[in-house]
Design goal:
258 residues; alpha/beta; Rossmann fold; eight-stranded mixed sheet; 10 helices; binds adenosine-5'-triphosphate; binds magnesium ion; ATP hydrolysis activity
């Protein structure tokens, strides 16, 4: 078992690879009087897939919304590539290089696949938009070939799995350095979950996009993540290198329901 520190976070030490890309430091977020995040601190490095695990209501989506400027933290700092972003609004944060795929996917159902993808690139500066958009489209097609054949189809008529791919593709169109993905396995059949997870790993390894992977499906996320944090009732209760967590049935039983 890892070391238990003063504030009761279990830490299973492991090496972090790459430069520090995202640092969340002491974030607290409230909805009215209710506190959804309590003093949450975590890091994502440049070559990492970092998993955020936790059960229903743990605060995972609130963490993603706080990171992407959809809700404001009352305390703490969020630093992306050395720059504080916790007071910035969503479209500024996207421009700084942090994109997200929300839990609800938020596609424009009556627009086509192509239109949804193109909207993902709206935050790019005018001078480079055309070139980057074309490059990014090729990238998205290399990751999700099925989208290429469905460019004229309305998003609302895609299957659940295809919609998840489109939501991911649209986020990648913004040319992010960091991608936060909230429950990408939600509603997918087991085979599609495995496929989605290996695509996320490719996005990190081949396209140099650091990943914050929010999942209730711990087993699937642990297969591809480098480092893991577990949230419980708004607090980080465990952090550690993924291989250490996988190697410890005791830790899994205590924090991940075995
Ligand atoms: N808009 C909101 N207004 C009030 N409370 C909210 C709001 N959104 C979330 N909460 C509360 O904040 C807590 C954390 O919710 P959150 O959606 O972040 O959890 P989660 O870990 O993503 O859960 P799930 O696995 O079910 O998606 C919950 O108690 C929830 O009821
Ligand atoms: Mg959620």
């Amino acid at each position: 078992m890892g070391n238990v520190s003063d504030n009761d976070v279990c830490r299973v030490r492991g090496e972090r690879n790459g430069e520090l890309r995202l640092q969340i430091d002491g974030i607290s977020t409230f909805y009215g009087e209710a506190q959804a995040l309590k003093d949450v601190s975590l890091e994502v490095h440049s070559k990492e897939v970092v998993a955020i695990l936790g059960s229903n209501g743990a605060g995972k989506s609130t963490l993603v919304k706080t990171l992407t400027g959809l809700v404001s933290p009352s305390r703490g700092r969020i630093v992306l590539d050395g720059e504080s972003i916790e007071k910035q609004v969503a479209h500024e944060i996207i421009r700084k290089g942090s994109a997200c795929v929300p839990e609800s996917r938020e596609l424009f159902g009556s627009l086509t696949v192509r239109e949804n993808l193109e909207l993902g690139a709206y935050s790019l500066p005018n001078a480079v938009r055309k070139r980057v958009q074309a490059e990014r489209l090729e990238m998205v097609f290399s990751l999700f070939a099925v989208l290429k054949n469905r460019l004229k189809q309305k998003a609302e008529t895609l299957s659940g799995g295809e919609q998840q791919m489109l939501a991911m593709g649209r986020a990648l169109m913004a040319n992010p350095k960091l991608l936060a993905s909230d429950e990408p396995s939600l509603g997918l059949a087991p085979m599609l979950v495995a496929e989605m997870m290996s695509t996320l790993r490719r996005i990190c390894d081949e396209w140099a996009v650091s990943l914050l992977l929010v999942e209730q499906n711990a087993r699937a996320a642990l297969k591809i993540a480098d480092y893991v944090y577990v949230l419980e009732r708004g607090e980080i209760v465990l952090e550690g290198a993924c291989d250490e967590v996988i190697a410890s049935p005791t830790i899994q039983a205590a924090y991940l329901g075995g």
